[in-house]
Write a structure and sequence with these properties.
Alkaline Phosphatase, subunit A; 8-stranded mixed beta sheet; 4-stranded antiparallel beta sheet; 15 helices; binds calcium ion
Length: 485
């Protein structure tokens, strides 16, 4: 008897020991409070042109309501103004360099193979982690280690044409990406984003039943072009009354490297002349309609979170992956280091914290360690961003001296008063004084009055570039070892 029972006894001892070890490694929970869930809502190409950011005709009542309950970040900046790189950087908390997270084709898996991702960190801490729609730009990026289940995407998210007649279709045969706008009278769930909202709502019900803490990603693809939204959202705006950008010319003294994105040229512009006021008005109308459509879907998801009584213990993040030009400087979209391309909407609702707004500078890379801190989870050593949890209690503090972003050849920092870019090819510079020139109409980098400021910006930028390059050298697993939580 004794001999046959011994292996069982040893095994049960071992199992107990593993469970105890697991429990002791699990993050301490003050007062045994349940660990907070995270609902991470990513919106593609959404600039902070939302009701809660003031002075805009864009109707976003649901996001405004969330902002009124949470902390609204007035000065949040992306690391890279393009989908793939911005998302890979946020999801790893790692800054870009000239060779890492450079453009749309960036993969966390490929560009930072030794990193631990945000959802992976939560998963390894015992969370269920789910991804619906566009969270990573590439669905397969780090999928196996990030998510408890395969990342879910609606079918055909990029070209969901619903409203084209045969004549238009014939004309579109010359252009793979299809017409730039459509406004069919269809229900919300006819388009992929509506399906992403429904899947997220189903998941919330499932997660409520399961009772395990969760990190739930919900990524919408609008207002990214093409501007396809149900007609009722277009009908919220009268096109004739839409104001155009006041500054449709190039900034004075801008170097030749500064260009607008050519992405819109990949769509069929119907009968519009891209230099006409009618085109500017249509583009704004489409962007506004798609923003209101996504706002409604966000409202549906948040309503379910409340209905299920999960809101009281769920941190909600609303984030846009980069900014967007709506005709300013005659630019459409992202792909440069102008303030409008770098500044993103960011609202974080933390249960139990007072509503606030803050002008503290924060970066997308700071979101990863902030969420870890709020959930009591150890931040992986590879993360370069910094937790800004203090801001929730003291929204008036100064958190960062600069936000660092880059795009292809341009390295940029934004400080309290200035935005500065340096191009790697010939050293051309841009400096905008955000106090006197918030819309960046005049590059003053060559102006004698700003000589000292330019020197300071060069030094600050160099520091940020050096810090960014540190990952992969001092911080690499080979030298210091990598800590996973
Ligand atoms: Ca994007």
């Amino acid at each position: 008897m004794k001999q046959t029972n011994r292996p069982q006894f040893i095994r049960s001892l071992l199992v107990s020991w593993i469970l105890i070890l697991h429990a002791s490694l699990a993050p301490a929970q003050p007062n045994d409070k349940p660990r907070p869930n995270v609902l991470f809502i990513a919106v593609d190409d959404l600039r902070p042109e939302l009701g809660c950011y003031g002075a805009t005709p864009v109707k976003t009542p649901h996001i405004d309501r969330l902002a009124a309950q949470g902390t609204r970040f007035e000065r949040a900046y992306c690391q890279v103004p393009v989908c793939g790189a911005s998302r890979a950087s946020l999801m790893t908390g790692i800054w870009p360099t000239a060779t890492r997270f450079r453009n749309f084709d960036a993969f966390a898996e490929k560009d930072a193979p030794n990193s631990t991702t945000l959802p992976q960190t939560f998963r390894e801490a015992g969370y269920v982690t789910l991804s619906n729609g566009k969270i990573f730009h590439h669905p397969e990026d780090t999928e196996a280690r990030s998510w408890s289940e395969p990342a879910w995407w609606p079918k055909d998210p990029k070209a969901p044409t619903l409203g084209l007649d045969s004549e238009t279709n014939r004309r579109l045969s010359r252009n793979q990406r299809g017409r730039i706008f459509e406004a069919p009278a269809v229900p919300d769930d006819a388009y992929p984003d509506g399906k992403t909202a429904l899947k997220t709502i189903e998941d919330l019900r499932r997660l409520k039943q399961a009772g395990q803490p969760f990190f739930l990603g919900c990524g919408f693809v609008k207002p990214h072009m093409p501007f396809y939204a149900p007609k009722k959202y277009w009908d919220l705006y009268e096109r004739d009354r839409i104001q155009l950008a006041a500054n449709r010319g190039r900034p004075s003294n801008a170097p030749a490297q500064l260009k607008g994105s050519q992405e819109f040229q990949q769509y069929h512009l119907a009968d519009f002349d891209e230099n006409s006021e009618e085109f500017h008005r249509m583009m704004r109308h489409g962007y506004y309609a798609c923003t209101s459509y996504v706002d409604k879907l966000i409202g549906d998801v948040l309503a379910e979170l409340e209905r299920l009584d999960l809101a009281k213990n769920t941190i909600v993040v609303l984030w846009g992956d980069h900014g967007w030009h709506l005709g300013e400087h005659n630019f459409w979209g992202k792909h440069n280091t102008m303030h409008l391309s770098l500044r993103v909407p960011l609202v974080i609702k933390v249960p139990g914290r007072k509503p606030a707004s803050t002008r503290a500078l924060v970066e997308s890379s700071d979101i990863f360690p902030t969420l870890c801190a709020l959930a009591g989870i150890k931040v992986p050593e590879t993360v370069q961003g910094r937790a800004f949890t203090r801001i929730f209690d003291q929204p008036g503090i100064v958190f960062r001296e600069s936000a660092y972003s880059r795009f292809v050849l341009g390295d940029a920092i934004v400080t309290e008063n200035f935005s500065y870019t340096r191009y790697a090819d010939d050293g051309a510079e841009m400096l905008y004084d955000l106090r006197s020139d918030p819309h960046e109409n005049s590059n003053v980098s060559g102006h004698s009055t700003y000589r000292e400021t330019v020197e300071q910006m060069r030094t600050l930028l160099k520091q940020r570039q050096d810090e960014s390059s540190r990952f992969g050298t001092e911080n690499s697993p080979g030298k210091t070892g990598q800590t996973k939580t």
